[in-house]
Write a structure and sequence with these properties.
The complex is a heterodimer of chains A (397) and B (159).
Chain A lengths: L8 E2 L10 H11 L11 H21 L6 E4 L2 H15 L6 E5 L4 H12 L3 E5 L9 H7 L4 E5 L13 H11 L3 E5 L11 H4 L3 E5 L10 E5 L25 H39 L3 E3 L10 E6 L4 H10 L2 E2 L15 H5 L4 H5 L1 E5 L6 H20 L12
Parallel strand pairs in A: 1-11, 3-4, 3-5, 5-6, 6-7
Antiparallel strand pairs in A: 2-8, 7-8, 9-10, 10-12
Chain B lengths: L3 H8 L12 E7 L4 E12 L2 E12 L2 H14 L4 H5 L3 H7 L8 H22 L5 H23 L6
Antiparallel strand pairs in B: 1-2, 2-3
Helix pairs in contact in B: 1-2, 2-5, 4-5, 5-6
The chains are: A alpha/beta (397), B alpha+beta (159).
């Protein structure tokens, strides 16, 4: 598939992805004539209901679960909040301990922090230099009153893929805790089979897999009880009240269908792209440090620190040249805090400061990879020529 | 997020790079995010008053740090030391059409750099130093030390 926009190379696919034209086509009828409320009895209502259930079947097909195990939500953030808060409310008689890791998405970490203020106890597992959680350490931290373990499948910043199957086994053998994984980055790039993984709950969303923003899903194993976040009309089997976001749910369904068809091929292509990018950058540019695993990272993800160059400056320079990427630099964040993920893998504020995340997706080509390397080489050289540090990070006179 | 003026100075920084035989060089840092600025100055004399004949900079930092460094050198160029001493972060931000609130610390860096260069020059020449400038110098020294400590902690200053 060719690029959608000829002037701009979009290589920030771990932030969000372009909407696949086939997804857009599938959505359009539901933004036009087919506007019914799926909860209405009349023809328009039934037509919308059918579309929602068809989409549910497609999401379930991708995740290899039953249709009734899929709850549509408004985002991955909502799904994760639902898991964390819904579990502790439903299981408060079983215990008050949660385990998660230091590299989770902010929506898990902040929800956990809030629960700590409400009297729950949370263990934040350390990760190693490549971002991996240790199954042994997880086992050590499990307690009798542990009710939930939530570990993401693939990291959105540094691309570490956790051994979810092994972690789930540990949790199920050694405790009564539910195991949840945030797999928002994975569909279309990795196998997302919840049965094979053995997880109790899993989070996905549409906009990281060429679908629209504002729609996510939660896989929740049949008969497993968690409390709803949203009370109201009882939609989604009472698990998530709100009139269903029909056009977006339909788009999500289509995106899942495409991901199921193409993930093996796309995994291969994206792995080649990130492999070539990392290799070329390290060959052509000096004093670059790779963040995240050297082997087997999230297909398409790269994260490198260009020592002596500040990330926000580099992102804006690349943007001027029509290349859109991201950084974990404190300068680019609202709170002026460096990425918590880079901190967790032992990168000081300085290396986080210099980090650049380039993430390729379905609409990138090998030519894009080469072009990004070419422009990056020029801009890094230019910013290094005006830096007050030398390229090894030493303070130059 | 940034004004057109910030983007313009960021894309085409003025007075950037090192200087041959400067009369004085100074360095300032920001320990919270590791920003560093080197400033180079040549000082001349006209009508019996010392003035900034030439000024250049090198900066490690975000777009706003680079833009403020650039515009500060523009503001200071040709000014007497007395005048240049009065350039503060607010004036720097104003010259760029404003900075995002959260980025105001970045503009501190370049005004501090300028003050530090003036301090070092006056010290070297045995000129009188005001209490205000002395205080600014003390703060600049402390923050630079902290910045260097932070960088060392993370092993960034090793070969």
């Amino acid at each position: 598939m060719k690029r959608l926009d000829v002037d701009v190379i979009y290589a920030d696919n771990n932030a969000t992805t372009p909407v696949d034209p086939r997804v857009k086509e599938a959505m359009l009828p539901y933004l036009e004539g087919k506007f019914g409320n799926p909860n209405s009895l009349h023809t328009k209502g039934r037509e919308a209901r059918e579309a929602v259930e068809e989409a549910r079947e497609k999401v379930a097909g991708l995740l290899n679960c039953r249709q009734e195990e899929i709850i549509f939500t408004g985002s991955a953030t909502e799904s994760n909040n639902h898991v964390v808060k819904g579990t502790v409310f439903a299981r408060k008689d079983d215990g008050k301990h949660i385990i998660t890791s230091k590299v989770e998405h902010k929506c898990v970490l902040e929800a956990c922090k809030w629960l700590e203020e409400q009297g729950f106890e949370v263990t934040y597992l350390d990760v190693d230099e490549e971002g991996y959680v240790s199954p042994e350490e997880l086992e050590e931290e499990l307690r009798e009153d542990t009710i939930l373990v939530s570990i993401m499948m693939a990291n959105n910043e540094i691309g570490t893929i956790q051994p979810i199957k092994e972690l789930t086994q540990t949790v199920h053998e050694e405790s009564n805790a539910y195991f949840h994984t945030d797999m928002a980055q994975c569909p279309g790039k990795l196998e997302v089979d919840v049965l094979k993984l053995g997880v109790d709950m899993a989070t996905v969303n549409a906009h990281k897999m060429y679908g629209p923003k504002g729609v996510g899903a939660l896989y929740k194993k049949k008969d497993l009880k968690i409390d709803p976040l949203l009370h109201g009309g009882g939609q989604e089997n009472g698990e998530r009240s709100s009139t269903e976001n029909v056009p977006h749910i339909v788009g999500f369904g289509k995106a899942c269908e495409l991901a199921k068809e193409n993930w093996k091929e796309e995994k291969k292509e994206l792995t080649e792209m990130h492999g070539r990018f990392i290799e070329e950058v390290q060959e052509k540019i000096e004093n670059v440090k790779l963040n995240g695993p050297r082997e087997a990272r999230l297909p398409g993800n790269t994260n490198l620190s260009f020592i002596g160059v500040e990330g926000e400056a580099l992102v804006l320079r690349l943007d001027e040249r029509g290349i859109e990427v991201a950084t974990g630099s404190a300068c680019s964040s609202e709170e002026l805090k460096a990425s918590h993920v880079l901190e967790a893998i032992g990168r000081g504020p300085e290396l986080a400061h210099s980090s650049l995340r380039v993430s390729f997706g379905r609409f990138n080509t090998m030519e894009d990879v080469d072009r990004v390397v070419e422009v990056l080489e020029e801009e890094v050289e230019d910013l290094r020529s005006i830096t007050a540090l030398d390229t090894k990070g030493k303070i130059g006179d | 997020m940034y004004t057109e003026e910030v983007m313009e100075h960021f894309k085409n920084p003025r007075n950037m790079g090192e200087m041959e035989n400067p009369d004085v060089t100074a360095r300032v840092g920001n320990p919270s995010c590791g920003d560093m600025m080197n400033i180079y100055m040549k000082v001349g004399e006209k009508n019996g008053e010392k003035y900034i004949e030439d000024i250049k900079f090198k900066t490690f930092g975000c777009a706003s740090a680079i833009a403020t460094s650039s515009v500060t050198t523009e503001l200071a160029m040709g000014k007497t030391l007395k005048e240049a001493e009065q350039i503060e972060e607010e004036e720097v931000a104003e010259a760029l059409g404003g900075l995002p609130k959260i980025k105001m610390h970045c503009s501190n860096l370049s005004a501090n750099g300028l003050h530090e260069a003036i301090y070092k020059y006056k010290k070297k020449e045995g000129m009188e130093i005001s209490d205000d400038l002395e205080k600014k110098h003390e703060i600049a020294q402390k923050t630079l030390e902290k910045t260097e400590e932070m960088r060392e902690e993370h092993g960034l200053d090793e070969e």
